[in-house]
Amino acid sequence: MSLWEYANPVRFIRLTDRLLPPVAVGALVCLVIGLIWGFFFTPDDYRQGSTVKIIYLHVPAALMAINAWLMMLVASLIWIVRRHHVSALAARAAAPVGATMTVIALATGAIWGQPMWGTWWAWDPRLTSFLILFLFYLGYMALWEAIENDDTAADLTSILCLVGSVFALLSRYAVNFWNQGLHQGASLSLDKEENVADVFYLPLLVCIAGFVLLFVALVFLRTQTEIRARRMRALIARERLA
Amino acid sequence: MMPDLGKYADTVLSAYAVSLVLIAALVALSIWRARRVRSDLEKVELRGKRS
User: Fold this and answer.
1) Is the dihedral of CA A21, A23, A26, A30 positive or negative?
2) B13 contacts chain A (CB < 8 A)
3) Min Cα–Cα distance to chain A from B20, Å
4) In terms of CA atoms, which chain B residue is nearest residue A229?
5) DSSP run (H or E) holding A71
6) Contacts of A5 (CB under 8 A, 6+ apart)
7) Any domain includes A51
8) Which chain B residue lies closest to A62 (C-alpha atoms)?
9) Mutation target vs B (from A10, A20, A51, A58; most B CBs, 10 A cutoff)
């Protein structure tokens, strides 16, 4: 069976109906374990004190904010090349989830930055590119709502998604491109020497797994909703013509 | 049971509160809209079958 067969809306709904409960339970379990572990059972950092506990929300949310947009990019490219409605609707479904993750990353970053940097906000490369990414999320969702024809909306939002991908990547690598600003480099790296200490790293990995599973579960649910909403619009349009 | 967060207690607790409220709102809104659209679609399909 080819992967493209899941571009059929009925097959997609049938498959995600089966996958949604275990993914949602997995998300809940990982989030509960990761956050309780991180909040209650990890020590304070010798420099940042107890504020280090914000890492268990800030880093996974920032990671998902960027990767949600990259998932939307892949789905948009599939729409542009193969014209599968499910992929366009999956991109639409992911946008509010990604936007919420971006708000969480920006809010927790500001709250964390105030005692550590002495300011809520700075026009630092990473912070600024993240703010621009959030504005792209808002623009993307507004564009979907503004255009009545679903196919035209999918075409135009896909182009917007391609343009916004520059900022999604920039927000990830801004610290490397411009060696200035307040934000430090990556907290997670495959290079062991650059990683946070194991005592923070392991609960952080569990939280990241929880955020990834939460994103997948929400995208499944919201894509199903978008598929049904599209069918409903088509049926109502047919009723009006009859 | 509550860890001693010291002078940063407000900072840490407000970061957790903001994040958990936003996540809970996102999940609740997604479930609410899924249920509403599913029930609306059923009504439209039923109307189509009757006519």
Assistant:
1) negative
2) no
3) 9
4) B37
5) helix A55-82
6) A11
7) no
8) B19
9) A51
CB contact under 8 A, A239 and B9: no
The amino acid occupying position A191 is D
Residue A84 lies in a domain: yes
Chain B residues with CB under 8 Å of A239 CB are: 44, 47-48, 51
What ipTM was assigned to the predicted interfaces of this complex? 0.94
Domain assignment of residue A34, yes or no: no
Task: For A45, list phi and psi in degrees, rounded to 5.
Answer: -80, 145
Q: Are A53 and A111 in contact (CB under 8 A)?
A: no
- Chain A contact for B49 (CB, 8 A cutoff): no
CA-based nearest distance B29→chain A, Å: 10
Chain segment A136-155, per-residue pLDDT in tens: 999 999 999 999 999 999 99
Taking CB atoms and an 8 Å limit, are B11 and A111 in contact across chains?
yes
What is the number of structural domains in chain A? 1
Note if the pTM is more than 0.90.
yes
Q: Is A103 on the interface with B (CB under 8 A)?
A: yes
Residue A102's domain spans which residues?
Answer: 57-188+216-241
The per-residue pLDDT of chain A, averaged, comes to: 90
List, for residues B3-16, the tens digit of each pLDDT value: 888 899 999 999 99
Report the chain B residue with the minimal C-alpha distance to residue A50.
B5
Per-residue pLDDT of chain A (242 residues; tens, 9 = 90+): 677 777 789 999 999 999 999 999 999 999 999 999 999 999 988 888 899 999 999 999 999 999 999 999 999 999 999 999 999 999 999 999 999 999 999 999 999 999 988 889 988 888 888 999 999 999 999 999 999 999 999 999 999 999 999 888 877 776 666 666 666 666 666 565 666 777 888 999 999 999 999 999 999 999 999 999 999 999 999 888 87
Q: Which two tokens stand for residue B47?
A: 């109307």
Say if A197 falls within a structural domain. Answer: no
Among A187, A114, B14, residue whose Cα is nearest residue A122: A114
Indicate the SS3 state at residue A45: strand
